[in-house]
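A further point concerns the way the authors explain their paired sequence and structure data. Showing the layout once, in full, would remove most of the difficulty. For illustration, here is how one protein appears when written out as sequence plus structure tokens:
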Amino acid sequence: SSKYANLTGMNASFVGHSIQRNLLSQQLAGTDVRGAYLVYGPAGLGKNYLVSQLILDTLCAQISNSKFQISNPASEFTQQSACLACPDCHWFDQNSHPDVFRLAADDACTVDVARDINDFARTGAVRSSGRKYIIIERAETMTPEAANSLLKLLEEPPTGVIFFLLAERSQ
């Protein structure tokens, strides 16, 4: 079982966050992908679950690359969910996917970790998705030195690198 997100129920209907999930899913499936996303809200809201599902849906080898056709962003998400059985799903669940760097909430984001993130972002994607994902949980607890070290990378990420900063506050 993953210590990073409860993936066992991901094939069930996703309840809540439908507007946010649909909009982000459309962006991730299209060509208008941003280099960084800030996902914030109170602890226990489901930020980690939401981001994990979004990323997994793009990594899963069993999901086709079909474009999303959602006319009303408030409608429930209808895209096929990740299979949770292919190698990409398994690696993600075990926190060992070669194209995902996750800094867990209980890990400190120091300048050394920021250097590791920079190194990770500067290498090409290993798998066929062509993208690399960097998830920083509790981003607001980053040391000032780490934040400064990541600033240039966040402002101008390499092609195919997408950051998800999870925080309890937007500042």
Remarks:
- The helical segments are 18-29, 47-59, 87-93, 111-122, 144-155.
- The first helix runs from residue 18 to 29.
